[in-house]
Write a structure and sequence with these properties.
The protein has 256 residues and is an alpha/beta fold. The chain has eleven helices and five strands. β4, α7 and β5 form a beta-alpha-beta unit. α5 packs parallel to α11. The mean pLDDT is 87.
């Protein structure tokens, strides 16, 4: 390909996306762009809650905040970048919740109450979700040159800040692939270990290598681990992990 490339790397929860994109950026010297993680946004804007405890409006807040930051980081004058996720993710994660349940992974009774509470307003949120899909897919066509999709190959980390529903995870993976087909950009499904992924991506796009792959992977793993440790050291993170009373859980269940 040309000397300039805007490459998006997609993949649902626990596919090793952040480590892969970080290592690829270090190895090739191409800047990595990303949005704040859900954990970071929660601690900033909805402290004391996990993803599974958010209502629909709080999830919209999360999606808008991520999309805003992604647009900013991908539009600061860089000719080439490797996007951790790509903007279509913001639509996929909300669409998956519309289908599986607004809080996938929560206790079954909370899911049942949420479904009933959401009956009067679910149509509104679905229309919002459809609009978000139109906007993010149109942006993807304009901004990216190609996609790499990382399939589900690893177990999901049950850390309470991810929707711990395998059904949701598999549906998200399916929706991402369907979105890539609709967007119409060239995309490649790349699996395997982190070293195997890097070798395949570099070969597909004929990317430069400025740092040996083993060094790039080690540094990427260190950075990702450090970033998670910083979050876990924050008191707001631990507050979100504490067990909530039945009264509070029921109050959240009643808010769609």
């Amino acid at each position: 390909m040309s000397d300039k490339i805007r490459l998006a790397i997609s993949g649902t929860y626990s596919t090793g996306k952040s480590t892969t994109t970080e290592a690829l950026s270090i190895a090739t010297g191409i800047p990595r762009t990303h949005a704040m993680t859900s954990r970071e946004i929660l601690m900033e804007m909805v402290p004391g809650k996990t993803v599974m405890e958010l209502n629909a409006m709080e999830l919209i807040l999360l999606a808008m905040r991520r999309f805003e930051e992604r647009v900013h980081n991908e539009g600061v004058g860089v000719d080439s970048f490797i996007s951790d996720g790509g903007c279509v993710h913001e639509w996929v994660y909300f669409e998956a919740r519309m289908r599986v349940g607004i809080n996938p992974g929560a206790a079954w009774w909370i899911g049942a109450v949420k479904s009933l509470a959401g009956l009067p307003v679910k149509r509104f949120y679905q229309r919002y979700t459809d609009t978000l899909g139109v906007v993010t897919k149109a942006r993807a066509r304009r901004v990216y040159d190609a996609y790499v999709h990382l399939p589900v190959e690893f177990d999901m980390a049950p850390d309470g800040h991810r929707p711990v529903s395998e059904k949701f995870r598999r549906l998200s993976d399916q929706l991402l692939l369907e979105a890539l087909e609709e967007v119409g950009l060239p995309y490649h499904i790349v699996g395997g270990t982190i070293p195997e992924r890097l070798e395949k991506i570099i070969d597909i796009f004929q990317l430069p290598v400025v740092v040996p792959l083993d060094e790039a992977i080690a540094e990427a793993q260190r950075r990702v681990t450090d970033a998670i440790d910083v979050l876990k050291a924050d008191a707001r993170y631990h507050d979100a992990q504490r067990s909530k009373s039945l009264r509070r859980r029921l109050a959240w269940a009643l808010r769609y």
